[in-house]
Amino acid sequence: MPTIKLVDVTKVFGRIKSIDRVSLQIAEGEYVCVLGPTGAGKTTLLRLIAGLETATSGRIELDGHDVTNIRAEDRNASYVPQQYALFPHMTIRDNVAFGPLARGFTSQQSLETAGEMLKLVRLAHRATAFPHELSGGMQQRVALARGLAGRSPLLLLDEPLGAIDARLRVILRYELRKLAKGLGVTVIHVTHDQQEAMSIADRIAVLRDGAIQQFGRPSEIYGAPKSPFLANFVGGANFLEGVVVREARETTMIDIAEGFSITSSHDSHDMGDSVVASFRQEGTLILTNASLEENVVPGRLVSTSFLGSYMRCVVNLGRVGEVVAKVPVHEALERKLPDRAGELVYVRADRNRIMIFDRPEKPLAVELEAF
Amino acid sequence: MPNVRVVGVGKKYKDIDALRDVSLEIRDREYVSIIGPSGCGKSTLLQCIAGIIRQDSGQIFIGDREVSALPPEGRQLGYMFQEIALFPHMTSWENVGYGPRVRGKDRELSRQFVGQVMEMARLKIGHRTYPDELSGGARQKTALARAIAAEPQLLLLDEPLGALDAHVRAVLRYELRRLVNELGLTAIHVTHDQEEAMSISDRLVIMKAGQVVEVGTPLELYLSPKRIFTANFLGETNIIPAKVEDCDQGHVTVSVSDWKMSSQGSGFTKGQSVVLTVRPESAILTSSQQDDQQWTGTVKERVLLGDCVRTEVELDNGLRVIAQTTSQEAESVGNVGERVRVNFVKDGPIAYQIPAHGLDVELALE
Amino acid sequence: MSLSRRVVLFLDSISGSRNGRIAAYAIGVLFFLVIVFVPPVFGILLGGSKIFEMLSNPDLLNRGGSAIAASFAIAVTVSLMDLAAGLPMAWFIVRSRSGWASTIDTLANIPFIVPTVALGYSVLAFWGSSQGIGYLLGSQFLFSPGWQMIVLLHFAFSYPVIVRVMVGALQGYKEVYETAARTLGASAFTAVRTVSLPLLKPALVAGFLLAFARSLSETGATVMVAGVFENGPVFIQNARAAGQESPLLFVSLVLIVTSSLFFIAIRIFAPKMRLPISTVWPRLEKRLSSTSAMTSRNLLVFLVFALFVIVPSLFVVLPGAGAVVDGTLQEAISAQGIWSNYWQSMGLSYLIALVATGLNVVAGLPMSVLIARKRGGRAISGILDTLINIPIVVPSIALGVSIGIFWGGATGISEFWLLVLAHASITYTYFVRSMIAAVESIPVEVEDVARTLGAKPLMIFRRLTIPLSKYALVAGAIMAFTRSIDETGATLAVAKNLTTAPVLMVNWVTGKVPASSHAIGLGLGILVLTSFASLLVLTIATRRT
Question: Which range marks the domain in which residue A107 is found?
């Protein structure tokens, strides 16, 4: 039985439809990330599940019970907002003890539970400190402990790592997942950072303009995105618009510009279709010499940037367009890849890793929310 | 466009040293990022250079001029604030035109100039639009256009992309660098995001607890950092305690338990205890063969990150190593439970002395 | 489980029910409407046709008309002057890095500490007698009671209002906007004029309105220094003393209507007004930003402050000191002669203040939460937010007249309770405004989290809202209490037999009850000291925030 079930949930504020017929089913103990750009409705969705907003239409079920019209304090879904909202006038132990106290446990029992929780997040030694005396990362852990102390089976996290430094974020996100899995709680974790979602979610729900674009395991969303927007938002990709000119088993040839066409091993479209061919940046290969293989096109290097574990190369392919390639840093150094603007290079796309999408109604740049 | 020199700058707040004897040099037209964890003093340093706060000791030179006595309006800079700080009571166009206006420039010429700046920044905004009606990315670009329209000689950026979504940040940072290049400005960019800094800077300045830790190009600092803190701050890294067996011409042979490996490093003596850093992408996994005895273990966890796979291996000697491989390569090796062998890329591992104040303090990120 | 815990849990669960919450808010709103709002604003209408009898008397009509016009003219002028003088002072207090800043901050509160009746006498003595300004600068600078002295008086007692409002606003103002302007090349003066002031406009308007309301409303001290001149409240007081009902009612009605409309009009139109910021004079403004310009500006501001605010306010100390020396003090302590009435009046004043404040705190809490959290919906909360300001905008004597008529018909209400109701009505806003600001400053997420952890509304109120706003609660209560002690106008209108302390002082000063100048000084001095004590508690309580 799913722990959380949303059926056609819609939320309207005035004239703005913030959540548009969202349906979801989440199993007990799952760690689900809701991913999307700012304004997609992720916080609203979380607040609807928490009971802090009332759905305009649709049904929300928690553990099989219809809770659509039940108030937040009776839903047992613990909410941790982006700024943590720790009670500033209480010590962190009293903060954490608040949940059990609210549910009717005695003061002593609540403080004991609080002590256990603080030990779990490794802050037992600061139990009598006040929130403002702690660093950002520590405050975040207190917020988590407080959310978990009431023993609610569902934890709703709104951008839990948003206020944390980039480097620390990478470390803390794994800790977050470990903590939740260790306690067996179901988690819905809202974020705009696709790397974060990819690394710790069991399943990811991508939200845009209040509607779910795709809901599945990270490998599914990355390997088989359903739209150009998804391909771009989760992982980034190169996009070339064209028309299908040849179609056979395991082969689709797309005409991009005069003299250049690209061949993919996927065969999802028919002759004459207007499509967008897309391939990931790490699937875009840089060659120093011309080659007669398929999917090779010459171009001029526009810029290279160093991103740590890989180099990012922007190549101008003339009429065909501009593409970005990611090359692992050791490979780039070994092969002594060119790094000066204007140098001639060749770009190759692996036919097995070219995805094909319908051409969207809106112009591609708008659809991808590119800047 | 001038160079900037910071000499021995110190600043104290109550009893805490926000800045301690900081010295830096930034060359003409350089794009330098100052990075470090929260509280390291990077914003304070930037504000001293801008004249927003006055340092307690030391000097600041912009060009050849010592500017400590000069208020911000006299230093001819452009400053981008973390909070963006677009004036809410003025339209976006009025915001961008504020610089020329307060310096008494001719109205008509200013309007044309502002138009050019907006176009350079690729901003398409109506004349009656107020900042709160813009998207996050457009607000950022407007703040940048405003700073540029004041015709600065030096551009100072304090977490300019901090308020933006991850995917917008990753695109706008290149726009930022492009604009700075086109205008030939000298730029100092403060951020906590090391990837952002590495991707667009000519040089990086690493700070911790009010002091400069290390300075260098992104490539230098990432591949051959002189301090363990730098290695850990710029990206994930494996930390492996080891003992020196042999040291010769920049290469060190060490032993971890009974296993041997070689790394970069010099100036060590045999038997000395050291610490090695190895980046996950420098740890290559191969299927374990029957007669493999060293550096073998079992895969405990495997996470698909999209363009790469992060694998956690528990070696037979108890050590945990994180390896990062491209998705293509990871298809053939590295499933959970598999027995693998860890190989290290030549010049990947680096050996360091154990820090005097302790490894934990050195690695601390907050 | 103990009994108290059982009661608490029971109340908590009631608060969870929709009806329980509605009941709590309803009580708050009802109290406001029935006690605080309707009687003062609409009670006057019960006066019936008598109100309009004055229209048939052209002389009275003229006199009344001039009085009302004078009230508005003085209020607007004084408020603008106070803005001009108080804003730079507030700037100094918040932005200056000198050690004097907090001392000046405390000094600027003095006209608050001094009850207006004491202030009135102090101003009268300083500007009107040869021991005051005459002693300092010569007798050509003496003023006689009249409109000039009213202006000097009102300037002094509205000054701290502006300073308090602007200091609060400046402390909450994000300096980054001004800094941004300066990094773009604007001199300090230009940055403040074109960026900070427009952004502080709401506070400037709020300060203006508060100063305006005080000037329009004040009665006791104004009567002392008015001489033969009449503004609205003085006219009403004179009419009352002469037993003329119709002018009393008519002018009260006009004052109530015009002040409410004026207030609402400013609230609606002020946000739309744009300050002139499009032209810049770079070279001039750069010179105005220089250190020498700033120093001379500060000196001027301090001079105005010292000469027109501080010294006149404290001048009452002189006769008070005299009283200690010549034996008046002995009389006072032993409650001889006029002093027995004095202590009775003091006791009465304190009792009324305590009861009125107590009522306001209990009934004002649900109202504060209702408005701060917009529980009834945005429209209702917005309307209530505007309405609660009306009782302090309306001149207190007119308000008193109206209340008297409203409850007067109901037999069985003693004069004491009439006074309590009048004081509750006047001081309600001070408490509620303070609480609203405090509740609004608690992030909503704090309550959201508490709810999802299972806390019912009453538990949230007890364990979060109150502790997080307790300083504002105490501050608001003390402000209401002090305002009640100080209140003269409504008391003059309502009371026929009872006399509160400030009213007694007015009688002493105007000669209605004979008293030596030393006695007056001492009587006022004691009043000042007791006021000072309560405000000291306020300063301590709010400084810990």
Answer: 4-223
